[in-house]
Amino acid sequence: MKITFPHMGNIYLAAKALFDGLGVEYIIPPQNSKKALEIGSLYSPEEICLPFKIMIGNYIQAIEKGADTIILPGSCGPCRFGEYCEMQIMLLKRLGYNLDFIVIDAPTDIGIRELYRRLNKISSKSNKSINTKMKSIFDAIKVMNLIDEIEASVHNFAGHEKISGECKSILNNCKKDALNCNSPKEMIDLLMNYKEKTNHISLNINRNPLKIAIIGEIYTVIEPFANLYIEDKLMDFGVSTKRMLTPSWWVKNTALLPTKLNSLNIKKSSKKYLSLNIGGHARECIGEAVLVESDDFDGAIQIFPMGCMPEIVSKSILPKISKDKDFPIMSLVVDEMTGDAGYVTRIEAFIDLLERRRNNVLFRS
Amino acid sequence: MKIGIPKGLLYCKYYPFLQTFFSELDAEIITSDDTNKKILDEGVKYCVDEACLPIKIFHGHVSSIKDKCDIVVIPRIIQLRKREYICPKFCGLPEMVLNNIPNMPDAIIEPIYATNKIKLFNWATVAGKTISKDKFKIKKAFNNAMNAQHNHKTGIKDESYELNVALSGHPYNIYDNYVNMNVIRKLNKLGVGVVTEEYVEDKMIENEVKSLYKKPFWTFTRNNYGFTVNAMKRLNINGIIYISSFNCGIDSVTIELIKDKTKDYPFLILKVDEHTGEAGLDTRIEAFVDMLERRSLVENNISSHG
């Protein structure tokens, strides 16, 4: 059994640590690229959203490398993501691949027994003791938290750095080196090292860079390929960015979900504009927009794939927030046809607008 | 007090309930006109670009009555069946409308969980409170409204036609004759009868849905998928027509699920949006009917591909 999984940001590092620890064979699909998207758009239904198409590309590229089992998290919310597994199973079957799909759904929807049976399919392939298995799960979570922390601080420092490009190169080297690690322990040590490094980036504290929050649909904000590397672009412009939706946030949020103690600050801040959970991460998007406004940010950029149902609702609410709080918010819609030049122009124009607002005498008076 | 009820979305299915409930509470009811060009234009003007046609039309309906009434009813229908939803846009409908249309009057935006009578009554108490303080009156109005809804039957089943098609899609696309450009009348004129999902038993739909890997969590997917697949096997029909609004997230899944079962059975998808030209629609329907006719003439329906 060779396990594979779809890409989403840096999740592949955590997955690598997990499967290395478990001693299960796995294949990391090649990094997302035009090729993966081309394969995906060729076979996927036309009107489905962008993440589906990229995922199909990932699967097929991984299958070509020998994978025969696919792990996919599920959901039973009103968003389309929950139906992905059904359609992807159907699609890959039609293409003639003989695969095993392991869909990790919430126990409230499929029953705890079924969830256990599905998880057992993976863990039975590992001959490690139960303690080692548990440890590798915790190691994987640690890796995920570390890489998310490194990424967050690098994005934050990008506006202050003295040597331009230092932040970006640290992050890129970190990812590259982490992929060459052979054991979870080695990877954790390496990430700790890099975390220490981020604390020693030489900073110009007197600079007051633009601060932009990235909000929107979780896959497109986390996966850099889907949002055309917006965070890298903003780092090049010397803009500090912040993104609250990360894989580690998602794990924490999902774990706390049954207790209803998850993301209390978002629930509180989104109450005025969207009081219910409507599926996807629309509520988080609204809540973050309100939160970052009070946190002295200059603006926010919302990103979502074409046709994303929950984000369409939040897109229609955001102008109201923008107007109420005098806070610029730009919405970017991405799909497989998004052209780089048009996209960059919009980002540049938005940054120009934010800079000019600062020079205005009335700014935050 | 004047209560405004927009004639958009699921009004076509649940109007007896809404009408009876509010008129029993002695409110004056103002409904918008049937969908027309003006309502569509208003909707397109106010609604966010990415939304689908039915949501845009709903915006138009609200905007056409907002100045004539004191309270607008915006039904935030979240669930009609247990563990199933309608659509994320339905859940956020009041927010979309209230944040996009200026000068809105008060609105009833309480979420509707219509999975059982008690939960639906919760909605009725909150909605009724805005009009009447009398609890018994609300209870009575609610019961009468429930009865009116039960006695109301929707659905079309044409007899006496040589050719028949199953007409599937979301109710607001099937029953809004402006959106679908009178597709039912057009089919009848061409000598084709129509059957809708109400004429397949719930049990049959349930059976079809069970064959899926995962139970669909949208009521529309469940109904449309169950109906079309079942109709194809059991009803005496010659083809399937599916009316879908452009950019509908739910239909993008449903249609794929259906296609997987129909294989080379005649299946026409009519996409509608605010630009749909009538001539193009006519051509497609005529071509489809021509094909059905020719298919029934060939004795054993063997496709030319062998």
TrEMBL record, chain A:
The keyword Nucleotidyltransferase does not apply. This is Nucleotide-binding protein (Sugar kinase/HSP70/actin superfamily). The lineage of its organism: Bacteria, Bacillati, Bacillota, Tissierellia, Sedimentibacter. GO terms for molecular function: kinase activity. InterPro entries: CoA_activase_DUF2229, Dehydratase_Activator_Redct. The keyword Kinase applies. Keywords: Kinase, Transferase. Residues 10-240 form the DUF2229 domain.
Automatic annotation (TrEMBL), chain B:
InterPro entries: CoA_activase_DUF2229, Dehydratase_Activator_Redct. This is Nucleotide-binding protein (Sugar kinase/HSP70/actin superfamily). GO terms for molecular function: kinase activity. It comes from Sedimentibacter acidaminivorans. The keyword Ribonucleoprotein does not apply. Residues 2-199 form the DUF2229 domain. Keywords: Kinase, Transferase. Signal peptide: none annotated. The lineage of its organism: Bacteria, Bacillati, Bacillota, Tissierellia, Sedimentibacter.
